[in-house]
Amino acid sequence: MTITATPTPGSKLISPTDHALVLIDFQSQMSFATKSIDAVTLRNNAALISHAAKGFGVPTILTTVAEKSFSGPMFSEITDAFPGQKLIDRTSMNTWEDAAVIDEVNRIGKTRLVFAGLWTSVCIVGPTLSAIDQGFETYVIADACGDVSDEAHERAMDRMIQAGVRPMTSLQYILELQRDWARTETYDFTTGVAKSTAAPTGSGSSTPRPCSAPPKADTDGPAGRAPMKMYLLSAGAGLLVGVVYSLLHVRSPAPPLVALVGLLGILVGEQIVPVGQKLMAGLSPAVAWAEAKCAPHLFGALPGRHAQPKPDPTEGAGS
Questions:
Q1: Per-residue pLDDT tens over the stretch 83-93
Q2: Does 24 share its domain with 165?
Q3: What distance separates the 2 farthest-apart alpha carbons in the chain?
Q4: Confidence bin at 210 (pLDDT 50/70/90)
């Protein structure tokens, strides 16, 4: 039997018009316990696939679980890509058992579904296996999912793959939607999303460049010196004030420990209003604390904990 090759894509590749994207439980309370992927990478990948779906016109379902009572709001990286879109809040851990979600799946009318969310072993396994049982073709974006441990995530992926789920990655998702750099109407969009989410592609050039290692952190540069410089300047200013007080024969009105306790009280007091507002909105104490960003306000950036520079997104392969 002779086989003749043709320049056409395989039927198992996704396109902007042949599937719906389902994003499940990307919420702060769920991400706190996620250990199989770091929070920054998870949120970047969630942003990447969200903006990719929006830009290519992929119908997308956004769903949360117990938003007001426990899990908190969906990542802003996702909702920013879909301004004004209604989120379907559930009580069931298995999204496929929620009637409102199923109504939306039926309204969209796609038999190919792509899933991502938290946690892999519960909130992704449940709907994917349920959808397969009902005849749907399912894909999972593995690096836009996470779980409480590497083991939990990997065993969940194994279980789904054995059942027929097709795994893919976030970058693979957007590049499979683009697929051909000659599609100039979406070229700038695709490379722009890749750059903004620090994906290793999108050079903005028609000529591919070889992959290169990400730059090392510049601990001696301005970014590395900034946190320590702040502390040194603060100590220097305090020393100068102490010298002036001494020359003027003025003594501090309170012992240092009392002054420090007073300062701590001010810092804690500043958190009461924003946390209280979050609690009144129905969020749990842990979610309210996180959403009000209390820890950064109280402790700031400690020396040596400055952000690592992102790899240059313009360095990478484009094909």
A1: 999 999 999 99
A2: yes
A3: 102
A4: very low
115 and 250 in a single domain? The answer is no
Of 123, 145, 211, 294, the active-site residue reads 123
Q: Quick check: 226 pLDDT over 80?
A: no
For residues 97 and 229, state if they share a domain.
no
Residue 145 designated active-site: no
DSSP-derived secondary structure for 243-292: HHHHHTT---SS-HHHHHHHHHHHHHHHHHHHHHHHHHTT--HHHHHHHT
Nearest one of 94, 40, 41, 87 to 64, comparing CA atoms: 87
CATH assignment of the domain containing 165: 3.40.50.850
Percent of the chain with pLDDT over 90: 59
Which residue in the block uniquely carries the two structure tokens 């795994």?
A: 167
Q: Which domain holds residue 183?
A: 20-196
93 and 233 within one domain:
no
Kindly report which listed range (33-42, 82-91, 220-229, 282-291) carries the lowest average pLDDT score: 220-229
- 163 and 252 in a single domain? The answer is no
Claim to verify: residue 163 and residue 270 sit in the same structural domain: no
* Domain-located, residue 6: no
| 167 burial level (CB within 10 Å; 0-12, 13-18, 19+) | middle
Distances, alpha carbon 58 to alpha carbons 1, 70, 193, 240, in Å:
39, 30, 15, 61
Q: Give SS3 for 146.
A: strand
